[in-house]
Design a protein that fits this description.
Order of helices and strands: EEHHEEEEEE
Number of domains: 1
Number of strands: 8
Largest sheet: 6 strands, antiparallel
Strand content: over 45%
Shape: globular
Number of helices: 2
Radius of gyration: 15 Å
Helix content: 10-25%
Distance between the termini: 29 Å
């Protein structure tokens, strides 16, 4: 299932700590993609703060804290992201319903404290089964295909 993001750009620079990160192409494509996204995915992707790097509700620089996968006749996944202390005032919870695929890819571990490192950007695209959500970290990526997702910002998430 591993794929590469279609519109966002996350490119490692010569400096081992540097990345070129841009959501410009995704934001330009989003108006034509929105109609094909399920409601929760559409709401999260089109939130004006989502890709505003100066906003405390931007996903950039969050860290993965926990995942929980369960089956009640349909597969569900919850991913908890912790805040970056210098940028965010809270963490984020993303919950997926009717999960069809969940894939984690790790790259060679860099200077980050955690294996995946910081979230650089994410991309939510329409998928025949609902939506595909790819999250690109400094140390790897997470891909989820699900019927839909919901996202909420949390006040008290340990980082």
């Amino acid at each position: 299932m591993c794929r590469t993001v279609k519109f966002i750009k996350v490119e490692r620079q010569a400096d081992p700590y540097g990345f070129l990160v841009s959501a410009v192409d995704y934001l330009q494509a989003l108006p034509r993609l929105e109609a094909d996204l399920p409601p929760g995915a559409r709401e999260f992707a089109s939130d004006p703060a989502h890709y505003d790097f100066y906003n405390v509700r931007c996903v950039k620089d969050l860290t993965l804290v926990d995942t929980h996968l369960w089956d009640d006749g349909r597969l569900h996944l919850r991913i908890i992201f912790g805040p970056n202390e210098w940028k965010h005032d809270s963490g984020l919870e993303v919950s997926y319903t009717d999960v069809r695929a969940f894939d984690i890819r790790l790259r060679k571990k860099g200077p980050e404290e955690s294996v995946l490192g910081s979230l650089m950007l994410d991309e939510i695209l329409p998928h025949p089964l609902g939506c595909g959500h790819e999250l690109v970290f400094t140390g790897g990526s997470v891909n989820v295909v699900a019927a839909d997702l919901s996202a909420r910002w949390l006040e008290d998430v340990a980082s």
